[in-house]
């Protein structure tokens, strides 16, 4: 079912969250933008972050005339981070005349759907998908404002080698493609540096398996655990391990950059390290957006600002090109630089953003902040 969110031409700087968007059929002159996010499944929290950011950016844009003078109407679809559903969503956009898409969130969904978008000349820009393959294929209408998993793996390995070279390191993954890919890439980069892990294993997340794994890691004398799992799964493993008296240095990925991690892990989340994109909420360019969220009782954390940036990039490129045509917007994205909430940025030949990539964070009291360098 299509969820359309027409956007009122109201309020300066965001008009953020002043009320729920009211469903209505878009006028003929409106430009429809697809927003493909998980609204069911384990990644709902990240999907909500991205969606809130997109909605806010669209409200801001509509307050200034939309894209090339055309008001933006959002067509929000749930892909559940499932590849087959993502393809179905992509085909829905093809059939309904949507030519600009912000999405998807999970890399497997973006990889599957991007083939459809590229074949039909639809511009897709993701706020959260990190798989290197997404842009390495060189599809001309595919972009991202998030980082790449190969860059994340390199940073994770470098930190492990620098801080924990003489400690027993375990590298874990579950059965999800993203977890396996990040764990394998981090292991490979760590080994290239000359550091070998004490244990590398995959497991099926569940309460029983988490308990058994915690006992196994504790018995092996593991000091540091790198895990590429999502917020729910890592939160459960960290909590159960602490309950069983196993409290290593935990190290996660951008997949746990949501408050759900701390909610699941509880007090055991304190001190957990993770890699995530540069926090744009600290940048001067983002302060108006961040403050507008705060005014409405919302912390602009996780991928929220990146959702805003993805929508903002489409708007800026369309206004530069004086067009809502996807080919013109894709050309502008590839050849121009724009002042976004991420700062002045452009996109390279692959479609990757030129903004600074990953940095190290630490969890304290339910929030994550930049970690101090050694």
Automatic annotation (TrEMBL):
InterPro entries: Leu-bd (IPR028081), Leu_Ile_Val-bd (IPR000709), Peripla_BP_I (IPR028082). It comes from the Bacteria. Residues 31-366 form the Leucine-binding protein domain. Keywords: Amino-acid transport, Signal, Transport. The keyword Transport applies. Residues 1-29 form the signal peptide. Transmembrane segments: none annotated. Belongs to the leucine-binding protein family. This is Leu/Ile/Val/Thr-binding protein. It comes from Methylorubrum aminovorans.
